[in-house]
Amino acid sequence: MRVDRQIESHIIQLRPNMPIPFQGVIWQSYGILSESILIPLYAGLHGFPAAYKTGTDEYSDDSGYWQFRSLTTLATTHPIKYLSFINNNWQRAQHKIYQTFANTDKRLISRYQQDPTVAVKASADYSTRQLNQMLMLAKKMRYRIMTDLTQSTENGYLSSTYMNIISI
């Protein structure tokens, strides 16, 4: 489902088979869900990177929300070309997250048995890393789309130029 006014989405996963600090995970996306990524946030995460706490209803480069939202806005200028570009990149990134998340769970269980405090901090660090990496990917895709949009207004623009610009 696509809703242009969507700000963020949350899927709450409850896992009774995990140690108590890891039983609840929020899978959160920013902007329009169909053109974004679900980022796993362990319950041990008590603070967010600055970019995710910044922003108002006016565009700002330092706002995580606006990075995700403006990416989709730019992509809708040429949906066939750019929406598939961002969706393909998000799908690859989501697959990697699923893989690392499963492995992280295993490491957290092992660490929790040795030192619960260290394990909870590791879960928060993992979530923070994912938030930062996905923000960087959103920025990178936005920069590539802006580059292509700008170059497409110039004489001599070739479709092969697009292929060079979008390779991440």
Average pLDDT works out at: 90
Over all CA atoms, what is the radius of gyration?
A: 18 Å
User: Class by helix and strand content?
Assistant: mainly alpha
Query: What is the rounded distance between the termini?
Result: 27 Å
How many strands in all? 3
Q: Give me the strand/helix succession.
A: EEEHHHH
Helix content: 40-55%
Strand arrangement, major sheet? 1-2-3
The oligomeric state of the chains shown is: single chain
Question: What count of helical segments does DSSP give?
Answer: 4
What percentage of the residues does DSSP assign to strands (E)?
Answer: 5-15%
Low-confidence stretches: none
Outline, from the CA principal axes?
A: elongated
Q: What can be said about the biggest beta sheet?
A: 3 strands, antiparallel
Explain this structure to me?
- By secondary structure, the protein is mainly α.
- Helix content is 55%, strand content 11%.
- It contains 4 helices and 3 strands, in the order βββαααα.
- Strands 1-2-3 form a 3-stranded antiparallel sheet.
- The protein is elongated.
Summarize the structure.
The protein has 168 residues and is mainly alpha-helical.
Which key phrases capture this entry?
168 residues; mainly alpha; 3-stranded antiparallel sheet; 11% strand
